What does this fold into?
Amino acid sequence: MKFYCYLIGVIFFIISCKKENSKSITPNIVWLVAEDQSPEFFPMYGNPTVELPYLTSLSNDGIVYTNAYSPVPVCAPARSALITGLYPSTLGTHNMRTYNAYKKENEPSIGIPSYSPPVPKGVKMFPQYLRSKGYYTTNNQKEDYNFKKTDGVWDESSSKAHWRNRKSNQPFFAVFNFGITHESQIWRQGDQPLLVDPEKIPVPPIFPNNIKVRKDLAVNYSNLIRLDKKIGEIIEQLKSDGLYENTIIFFYGDHGGPFPRYKRALYETGIKVPLIIKFAKQENAGTRNDDLISFIDYAPSVLSLAEIKPPSVMQGKAQFGYYKAKEKSDFIFATSDRYDEQVDRLRALRYKKFKYIRNFNTNISNAIPVSYREQMPMMQNLNQLWEAKKLEAHVALWFKTPKPLEELYSLEHDPYELKNLANKVEFQDTLNFLRDRMDQWIAETQDLGEIPEKELINKWFPKGKPSVLSALTNKNDAGKISLNHSDKNATIVWKKTQDSIWYIYSKPLDDSVSIQAKAVRIGYNDSPITTLD
It folds into this structure.
């Protein structure tokens, strides 16, 4: 009897250890980010125009999300949401673009400098939480967060950044951005061989069906084939390293497609994105999920997967993982403000099968003349046909003024949002409900789009420059150096004097090594560097 009791105890101990070890395994997470793409161009969303073997395989191993959204239909504001878990209109990053690392003047034609908005208290770039837990965090290569990044977030952020540079068995969070599908590639790849027949591709009903339109569409499909090969390289690397099975992989687009009325538009074509997530051990492989997911949910979801409690300042929900939210989202909110040199404020709301859009300046056409977009052959063709009054009525809607003050669409019956129901008597209850919900959201999130951009800049930078964080204080106790800063919203980072990589300060440092330390915070100039020899 004693032997059996002993045997049962041993078995129970072994099972307990296995469970404990299983829980303690920290997942590797990879983001594969395609620029400027809508779901409708991909085979896993029902379009058979091109074969994308690697992405199709990933969708077979993962979950295809059918209602994933960007909160802004352009890259830099969208990326600010991804990296913080907050709406750009709350952060002050809602305009395209605010911080420009390459141009000090930014938009001189309208008097907008390059500036990094001082975001609300407690807001940090979420990879630093992963790094504090021991993750190796890499970004390859695009940043473009619409604010100046803080040191200490990435172990690597460059064209050479890769999980293979980490310590042995160190968990990693790795981002790979693919620019081959960017809007600019429509004209930059225009002279390259087409990988699809322009005569055999579907033309969305929002475009005229002509040679120039088909050519640009064919270039995009060709770029998707090129994208698939690049993504395949990463997947094959994961497999060759023996990491694919237990790595969580996100594939998504950073906003809608690269074309007019896609990018920079609050219609589904501009804010709806492809999203595939392959979980560890291919959990729920080959399924589809209709939940509403916004970019503000990505940061808390990744932290939750790593068993890190998402900070309360984040406006998004953890969609999965240890801290998964109990309730699903009922609404998707999206914003539109300044695009380069053109300003036009709009707000949008998705609820069930309906879409509500509010236009704050009805005298401006949706087809605002953004000079960057004007380089696209399709855009030039649309302009010519509009001026010649040769556009079909449903295509011409995008150009017309005045715009309606409010737009309401049934996405189930009108997926390209061409039939405005806002004036239909039978939809007034729905219209009133969504109008009120939009007003509530604007107030709840302290939507900064209501304030003119120059007024915001003057408020944030009364002396014309960002505030400078004060110097650190330090204390040496028995050979251990403790660092402190008066601003609890700042992050303390440190590095060895001879090194270039900054680390997040979390515990006292050994005084036997010469170190440098400083405080950092988004929208503020770093504190003076403290050198401790």
